[in-house]
Design goal:
Layout (H helix, E strand, L loop, with lengths): L1 E9 L5 E8 L5 E5 L5 E7 L5 E3 L7 H6 L7 E2 L5 E2 L3 E4 L2 E4 L9 E2 L12 E6 L3 E10 L10 E10 L3 E10 L3 E2 L3 E2 L17 E4 L1 E7 L5 E7 L11 E2 L9 H4 L5 E6 L7 E7 L5 E7 L3 E5 L27 E5 L14 E2 L5 E11 L1
Antiparallel strand pairs: 1-2, 2-3, 3-4, 4-5, 6-16, 7-10, 8-9, 11-12, 12-13, 13-14, 14-27, 15-26, 17-20, 17-22, 18-19, 18-21, 21-24, 22-23, 23-27, 24-25
Length: about 350
Amino acid sequence: MAVTKTKIGRLPDGRDVNRYSLSNSSHAEASFTDLGGIWLTMLVPDRSGAMRDVLCGADTVETLLVNPGHMGEPVGRNANRIGGAVFQINGRKYELGKNSDGINNLHSGPDFYRNRLWEAETGTDAEGSYVCFRLHSPDGDQGFPGNAEISVTYTLTEDTALRIHYEAKADQDTVFNLTNHAYFNLNGHDSGDATDQIVWINADQFTVTDAHSIPTGELRTVEGTPLDFRKPKRISQDINADFDELNHAGGFDQNFCINAFDGQLRLAASAYAEQSGIKMQVMTDREGLQFYTANGMHNDRPGEPACKNGVHYGPRTSYCFETQHYPDAINHPEFPTSLIKSGDVYDTVTVYQFSVE
């Protein structure tokens, strides 16, 4: 197990930006940057033993600052959407930026955490090699109440799992709903269309949304719908089906209600690429998982800056499994809450386990 640190550039104000690379004895490697705490690469062996980078991303400071699609970002304070960009806590109204369709808030923007330099600490422990990023988020930051201390710890284990541990607390009642917006293609980040890959999701229900992808409050069965992934199927099988949830999202972009939620770590989803033989299992202690097929990724349009290794990513060339509270949970008392009381600790773990078949 090893950790290395290298400089990858500078911010406009002159501060250095660094890459932190974790590796294990199987030669798997994951790398991250203190700019935004972003996950940059995930190299794992394929069926033949060759290493493939299965994570889409950027590799320069300039591209990371605009990061199309939020690739690899630990999104906060609230991942996903807040309807109307507004919520109330203890009778007080809080307004956020309307950065999604001019009506709603998406990923707590427009002042995203990705543009901030996080403090970094590295080391090894019984689980593997790790890098921990820490950020202070002041009261009123992005519109949220409370001075908050946030940490995101990435650990690469000896059995080639990437474990993400999120912790946060604030001195006022506030919202916390952190996730990582990693985009995966198990044939390799530069291999093009990913819809032939096979996905399974451990969910009997999904959160119904309106035309702006804001939950209505209804939970509906996946049975008989294109959202039924309870048996493994190719992404391509139903992605173009005539179904309201797909029509207004341009593909899969739904929150699934993971079965048997009890706050403990459990298997939520898996993906498999027949070409490479790489399989990924997703474990979480959260109740929700957003499955997103990069419908809005348009880095392949003329004039867009190249991403990692000169690659331009287009729609459906990757997919995300974003573990989370349900979208807009703060405005839906019927959902498990994203409200964290003053002094309480927000503490959640997600694991991406890689293997070959």
